[in-house]
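Everyone, carefully examine this protein record:
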Amino acid sequence: MDETIMEGLSSIKGYLGGAINNYTGECLVCDAARLSGNLEETSATFNDVFRDSHKISQNLKLGATQIMEIHTEKAVILMGCSGEDSRVHLHIFAVFSNDGNVALGKMALKKILPQAVDLLA
């Protein structure tokens, strides 16, 4: 898998970067062209947060977390899951500026995840 899978995100207004990780946090694709810092390490940390959200929502008998949205002073971070029962359990992360098109970002995450699963299955 290479960065071309992220093209559906990179063309969206306000996109700053993104990554696809396996369930353990290993970064499979990382696109940090417009971000400072180490996105690979950061995505592994976000992966832990997302896994914790899976546990919490399951403890409430709500099922696994599908998408998570975090708002900061300068950005919006989206996290999505391919599904615990999918052939390959993946997490995707995307960072948008506050004035970015987050709605389109969410739609792109939902399209990219099944493509990534198909590539790795």
In short: The mean pLDDT is 92. Residues 75 and 97 are 4 Å apart (CA to CA). The first strand starts at residue 15 and ends at 22.
